[in-house]
């Protein structure tokens, strides 16, 4: 039993921080469309991301239809198949996951969880969303451009990305793709500056860094990483755009296309890979860290127990963020690089597993003997943990050069990254939406629909991606339009492919239930009240639900304790909000 | 990617220094009621806009260090002939430095409440910025007239692309400066005006520093230094 150093609350200092000047909207347009309120911007970001994500979902259906039933659908020819792959990957990774975690949850939760009235630069925040929307529209435009969208694969490797053999390579596809990414990076930078500076400067009295919920820690660290990593994507896109439009040779080697010597010469495709993966690997953690943070809060709240090892969770987030910048070349084991480099990058890759494993242990130890409520957010959080462990373990396989080389171009890799950065973060997104929807709308999402959505999605995702590991191990290559007659692929593998396709269709359809629930519950959901989960963090203590413009009443809240005071012995209730002054009860056991 | 990694190391060092002052080893669950807020009481010591600009400049620095990394990677190939630097770039560099000095003067005079002097200095700095951009266009013209076209050689491509990117950043700075000039056109300059001018000045000093690095790079002076680093590394 540890003595708590208790204070009277005076040490917090006056609760009145000098208030920021709030922008006051005058019309419906400036209130709901060109809004500078982070909460509205968050909903705008999230709706746009989910809408474009639905497009990517349909694209994955089309891809699966071809893989499960080759040739059955005449309109899916090889060109279209590659276009579907490319757009599915790019949309899901950048326009859905990145935008939803940082633009959506970042905008909604950072000011509320820190006790701020809004982001520090609301105008730049608004511009950030509109640039993102423009990027999405440019991306969508490529579906209607002559030649269709690019089919270069989501990594857009040159030289093939800008050659005529690749769909969109000599048409508008690749140009629109690169322009859209450039817009996205500019827009994100504006938003990212906001998230970082709000965490640095916008916290209310008493909200020290070590009292921030892990959600904010995750989003903050991910944003810092994104601000450093996205410039690499920007540089790569600008240089490729020069190669494609102006005929330079940054990435383009001397090349003969259709029997014709091109003007290019001397460029280095490997240089593109370095730039791309210098962005691309941190990107994995840009998606993962907010998910880590959010899931920590979901587990703690719904297991009514303080998070185990808060400090270690914070350190792990920071260490993962830093390490993720020196592992990028593990995506390039098969690019013919020096084996010593491979050794170095394999080592750093495996080292990242240590802080990640610490986080997994701490989640499990938080659950240990907790008062687990199997609410929808909790179900999704549990689904995340098992899925992430699954994907993480296959990541350890692939992090080793000798294992990666034979597996690198097989379905095993597809299964791995879908588990670890597809299904796992999406589980967190769903859990987070079920968790915070009551705060955003004032009403609960429908339970029955939520249960259907969860079980179909969770079980279905496993039925899709588990067999895919097996397909990869028997050597079924990825990126192939069709297998044809191949000796090493048994007939049973084709049956398995059909099964995976059917499951993909079902899981996709289950998302319609979710979308319907989102819309239906706005009007017909059960009234939630201000704090339906009996949670401690600041966003549940707002005077109104949904919070109004400016978030708080006359005074900003003052913070007297860390965000995980659940089931404190001796306390009247099983949660003590962060705004509760004075000391109640004893130090929770298991806090380390 | 060595240049980028060195840059990252600097950023990480700054981040580590900052984090080390945030009591990451404290035990928040034992500190009920205590704040231990390392921030000063009352108003925040540094305005958010300054921090915002600092973070933005770090992003810009990341951008240019990545361009420079790509420059060195591509330089290793055999089809590289350095581009001769037009003489006018010396003049441009001087003009850019002059703009930097003028903005510094604008800040100092604004702090001393000599508003008219500050306004004049800002307008002069704006003119210097425009002159720099015009000078860069002349430099490009001179090169193209001499037959050094964009796509002929990777060194040319890099020169046009990176100096163009730098020019775009200068252009953005000029927009911001124009806004500040228009906003402070009338009335006495308060704290906000001084802050805006300070931000413009900081941005300008930074873009001057970037340009000096780039100029050293294009002229080949940086090569000996990089060769030295490379031999030390291997």
Walk me through the topology.
The complex is a heterodimer of chains A (592) and B (234).
Chain A: H1 28-33, H2 38-68, H3 78-114, H4 122-144, H5 173-201, H6 214-246, E1 256-257, E2 260-261, H7 269-302, H8 310-323, H9 339-367, H10 376-399, H11 401-407, H12 411-441, H13 447-473, H14 491-524
Antiparallel strand pairs in A: 1-2
Chain B: H1 2-20, H2 48-75, H3 88-111, H4 115-145, H5 154-183, H6 191-219, H7 221-233
Helix pairs in contact in B: 1-2, 2-5, 2-6, 3-4, 3-6, 4-5, 5-6
Please give a structural write-up.
The complex is a heterodimer of chains A (592) and B (234). Chain A has 14 helices and two strands; from the N terminus they run H-H-H-H-H-H-E-E-H-H-H-H-H-H-H-H. By secondary structure, chain A is mainly alpha-helical. Residues 1-11, 13-17 and 588-592 of chain A have low confidence and may be disordered. With 234 residues, chain B is mostly helical. The radius of gyration of chain B is 22 Å and the shape is flat. The chains are: A mainly alpha (592), B mainly alpha (234). Chains A and B meet through helix 5, helix 6, helix 7 and helix 8 of A and helix 1, helix 2 and helix 5 of B.
β-sheet strand percentage of chain B: under 5%
- Report the structural category of chain A: mainly alpha
Broad structural category of chain B: mainly alpha
Shape of chain A: globular
The SSE string of chain A, one letter per element, is HHHHHHEEHHHHHHHH
Mean pLDDT of chain B, to the nearest integer, reads: 90
By DSSP (H or I, 4+ residues per run), the number of helices of chain A equals 14
Report the end-to-end length of chain B measured between terminal Cα atoms: 15 Å
The largest contact between protein chains, plus residue counts on each side, is: A-B, 76 and 56 residues
Helix content of chain A: 55-70%
Major β-sheet annotation of chain A: 2 strands, antiparallel
Query: Rg of chain A from C-alpha positions?
Result: 24 Å
Total beta strands of chain A: 2
**SSE sequence of chain B, one letter per element:** HHHHHHH
Low-confidence stretches of chain B: none
Number of H/I helices of chain B:
7
Q: How many distinct beta strands of chain B?
A: 0
Spans of chain A of at least 5 consecutive residues whose pLDDT stays below 50 are: 1-11, 13-17, 588-592
Broad shape of chain B: flat
